[in-house]
Each structure stands twice: as structure tokens, then as C-alpha cells.
């Protein structure tokens, strides 16, 4: 267990994020980077037009479309490793479940600007967004594979609605656009080996630049209704599960899926 797990929990509850510096050693990052780069190169080739024109992230990294079984096992074992699970348990102590993985990179177009958002704004109208940020919990665990400019976040917005400035920028109203600066923004530069944990529904933006390539692991509270977001192909097979030391994240997701079907 993390010595300061209560401290991390308190920090997350109050601010909506925390950073652990130099959390992963060079060997862990090198192994992860090798697999992720395989995925990234194949994904780029398969999505060339989208990548060239507007892409800044991809998803379903643990699926079978671009990676063979051995590489997927490396990812699953990293996601369920003690270092990841200790952090997850500190924030979601009861039945955390695996949702997805995403990969964040720089857009090809240098004119493309980073933008403020809450993840929930892409699935809910304003009224429901107000409810979601108070009722559900989705974690991003960001693992930068190279040194990068990182993220800019608005601390505390995982538990409160936007103020006027934040709303205008995020919603692009009253003459504002989503790439405008916000006075409460806190930039967090990240280095390979760091871990940033933040609420998906707080106001945040990724910062483009440097060699940005970050793997995000998305985890949700089983009491939230998010199992529909999980792609079956991104879960480990039964034989893979048998070789994962702590498969709880995946088992909880599979349980939710079975409940849905029954």
C-alpha cells in the first residue's frame, strides 16, 4: 500500500487531481513505450487522413486490432500492477472498474489549439452535466511516455459548476473560444515516469508541444452507469485473466457486463 494513500485521497477529493513524480522507473516506462509506439504507428497508418487533419488522441489501446496477445498482456499487467492499483484504491476504494485507454499526442497541424472541456460535455446537456459532476466518478491516470508540457486544470471543478468565465470559454459563448486562457488555470508539466491522476469531469485541457505521448487509463466507480462505454475487445481474455496477479479492475467490468446481459 502507498504510505500516503489517505493524503492522495484527500488531495483528490479536495482538488480533483494529484501528481506523483518519478513514480515509474525507466524500465517500466521503456517497456510500456515500446508497446504503445507499436500501436501508435499502426493506428496512424490506418487513420492517416484523420491523423493529418485533426487527431490529437486515439483509444482502445488494449484491443486486438493493432496489438498481438503478448503486447496486450504487457498493457494489462501494467494497468493492474501494484503501483496503479494502489493509486486506484486510494481514490475509488470500492469496486473500481476498467473503462478504456486513450493515447494523447500532438496534432500534426501546428495551428490546432488545445481546448478547455469536461469529458461529460460530449455525452450530456448542460443540466445533466451539472448532475454528473456531483454524482459519478471517472478517473484519468495519465502516464507520460516522454517529457511533455502536460495538462492545465482548474482545481476543485470536479465538485462545482463553472463560474461565468469558465462557462463562456468552455462553451464558446459571449465572444470566447475554448482555447482562451482561464484565470484559475494551473499548468502541470509532466516528465516520463510521473503519474497524474485527475477527474475526467473537472475543467481541463491537454497542452500541446514537446514529444507529447501519454497513455491514459480510465477507471470508473462501479456504482456509476458507465459499462456501456466499455468495448468488449479491450478486455483481457480468460486465459489472460488467469495470468494477471490482480485482475480486479477487469473482473469488476466483466461482472457489470454480465449483470447487464442477465
Automatic annotation (TrEMBL):
Classification via Pfam families: PhyH (PF05721)
Coiled coil: none
InterPro entries per the UniProt record, alphabetical: Phytyl_CoA_dOase-like
Cofactor names: Fe(2+)
Molecular function terms, GO-annotated: 2-oxoglutarate-dependent dioxygenase activity; iron ion binding
Protein name, UniProt field: Phytanoyl-CoA dioxygenase
Gene source species: Photobacterium swingsii
Amino acid at each position: 500500500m502507498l504510505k500516503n494513500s489517505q493524503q492522495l485521497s484527500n488531495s483528490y477529493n479536495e482538488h480533483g487531481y494529484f501528481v506523483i513524480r518519478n513514480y515509474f522507473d525507466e524500465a517500466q516506462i521503456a517497456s510500456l513505450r515500446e508497446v504503445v509506439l507499436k500501436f501508435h504507428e499502426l493506428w496512424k497508418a490506418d487513420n492517416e487522413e484523420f491523423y493529418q487533419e485533426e487527431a490529437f488522441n486515439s483509444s482502445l489501446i488494449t484491443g486486438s486490432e493493432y496489438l498481438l496477445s503478448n503486447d496486450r498482456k504487457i498493457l494489462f499487467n501494467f494497468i493492474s500492477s501494484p503501483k496503479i492499483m494502489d493509486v486506484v484504491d486510494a481514490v475509488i476504494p470500492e469496486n473500481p472498474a476498467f473503462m478504456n485507454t486513450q493515447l494523447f499526442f500532438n496534432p500534426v497541424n501546428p495551428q490546432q489549439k488545445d481546448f478547455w472541456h469536461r469529458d461529460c460535455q460530449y455525452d450530456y446537456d448542460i443540466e445533466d452535466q451539472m448532475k454528473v459532476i456531483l454524482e459519478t466518478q471517472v478517473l484519468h491516470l495519465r502516464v507520460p511516455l516522454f517529457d511533455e508540457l502536460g495538462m492545465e486544470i482548474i482545481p476543485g471543478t470536479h465538485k462545482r459548476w463553472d463560474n461565468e468565465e469558465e462557462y463562456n470559454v468552455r462553451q464558446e459563448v459571449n465572444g470566447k473560444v475554448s482555447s482562451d486562457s482561464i484565470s484559475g488555470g494551473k499548468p502541470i508539466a509532466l516528465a516520463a515516469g510521473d503519474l497524474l491522476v485527475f477527474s475526467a469531469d473537472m475543467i481541463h485541457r491537454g497542452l500541446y508541444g514537446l514529444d507529447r505521448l501519454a497513455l491514459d487509463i480510465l477507471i470508473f466507480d462501479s456504482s456509476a452507469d458507465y459499462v456501456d462505454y466499455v468495448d468488449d475487445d479491450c478486455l483481457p481474455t480468460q486465459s489472460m485473466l488467469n495470468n494477471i496477479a490482480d485482475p480486479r479492475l477487469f473482473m469488476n467490468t466483466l461482472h457489470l457486463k454480465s449483470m447487464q446481459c442477465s
